[in-house]
């Protein structure tokens, strides 16, 4: 079972079903990763998602990544990826995968620039952030290609298009 602890600031309260969107996007990301077996355990996979504003994300980016600017999403894994494989045999309890925080203004601007609905862009970012929680990164070309391939596959399972194709 996947449990999403969602909190949102006022600007995110637009009538969208962010809870369901996050649940589906996290599940899709886990399903395409090598850790898909985690969803077959009796343990609860827990992810915290915070929908915030640029200022909050900016402060966290500065304090934790030494980047003095806002960004669209930050992910804070709770477990080393090496431990995740062994947790696939867990028969109960809770597995805390980590936390994600998204900046409303940046996400909205990016969605508008891509000419896509905000929920579609957020689905992509939640998939992307979940893969970070699972230990994936995009620091090298090889890592980026592998991560993008998983994102494309996860989004396709949600009926969403490849976000890396330029139209």
Automatic annotation (TrEMBL):
Its EC number is 3.1.-.-. Signal peptide: none annotated. Its cofactor is Zn(2+). Gene3D superfamilies: Metalloproteases ('zincins'), catalytic domain (3.40.390.30). Keywords: Cytoplasm, Endonuclease, Hydrolase, Metal-binding, Nuclease, Ribosome biogenesis, rRNA processing, Zinc. Zn(2+) binds at residues 128, 132, 138. The keyword Nuclease applies. SUPFAM superfamilies: Metalloproteases ('zincins'), catalytic domain. InterPro entries: MetalPrtase_cat_dom_sf_prd, YbeY, YbeY_CS. Binds 1 zinc ion. It is found in: Cytoplasm. It is an enzyme of class 3 (hydrolase). The keyword Iron does not apply. It comes from the Bacteria. It holds the Pfam family YbeY. Belongs to the endoribonuclease YbeY family. Single strand-specific metallo-endoribonuclease involved in late-stage 70S ribosome quality control and in maturation of the 3' terminus of the 16S rRNA. This is Endoribonuclease YbeY.
């Amino acid at each position: 079972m996947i449990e999403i602890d969602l909190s949102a600031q006022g600007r995110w309260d637009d009538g969208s079903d962010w809870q369901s969107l996050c649940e589906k996007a996290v599940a899709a990301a886990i399903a395409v990763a090598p850790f898909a077996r985690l969803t077959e355990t009796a343990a609860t996979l827990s992810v915290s998602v915070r929908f915030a504003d640029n200022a909050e994300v900016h402060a966290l980016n500065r304090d934790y990544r030494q980047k003095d600017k806002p960004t669209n999403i930050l992910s804070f894994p709770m477990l080393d990826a090496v431990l995740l494989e062994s947790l696939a045999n867990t028969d109960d309890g809770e597995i805390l995968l980590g936390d994600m925080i998204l900046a409303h203004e940046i996400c909205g601007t990016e969605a508008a620039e891509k000419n896509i609905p905000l929920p579609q862009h957020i689905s992509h970012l939640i998939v992307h952030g979940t893969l970070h929680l699972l230990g994936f990164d995009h620091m090298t070309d090889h890592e980026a290609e592998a991560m993008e391939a998983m994102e494309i596959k996860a989004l396709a399972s949600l009926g969403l298009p490849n976000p890396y194709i330029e139209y």
